[in-house]
Amino acid sequence: MRTRFVLASASPARLTLLANAGIVAEVVVSGVDESTVESTDAKTLSLTLARLKARTVASRLTTAGPTLVLGCDSVLAMDHEILGKPVDADEAVRRWRAMRGRAGVLHTGHCLIGSAETAEAVASTTVHFAEISDAEIDAYVATGEPLRVAGAFTIDGLGGPFVERIDGDPGTVIGLSLPLLRHLLHELGLRITDLWATH
Question: What pTM value is reported for the model?
Fold first, then answer.
């Protein structure tokens, strides 16, 4: 029997990452209010939110067969400050003016809930931002993209040219680390190849 794989996230980027890796995922949005969760540590916050999303969705599912629920959440940390999604365009502009020419660490928490066990971990990747102009910042924020993502940037969209380089797994920055997912599946006694749609 095929394992039902549920992604507890509305992120199209995460869904695309899974699809490109051969995994057909069903999307069930948790509806978790992220603003109610507080932490002074970005890594802890990313995992707490991922766990909350996965547990919320898992508790709502009714299924007779084998099921996996994956919750993920990304948080950018810079100068010991936690940077989630900006609340508005003005904040996104201020954020980018502070980030340009510098580096931050993007933490993505992963919580994978199986039938009997749960595996979880955080993937962290250092992001080096380009020294971009005020005009480029204004144009980028005007697209609306920075308002929809943690840290106010993407590497797989319009924000890609504004990231000079990353140290770590690109998937972590996009929102889901496939190598880490493979390890979490292994903890649950599964292989990622078992989830390939071709099986």
Answer: 0.93
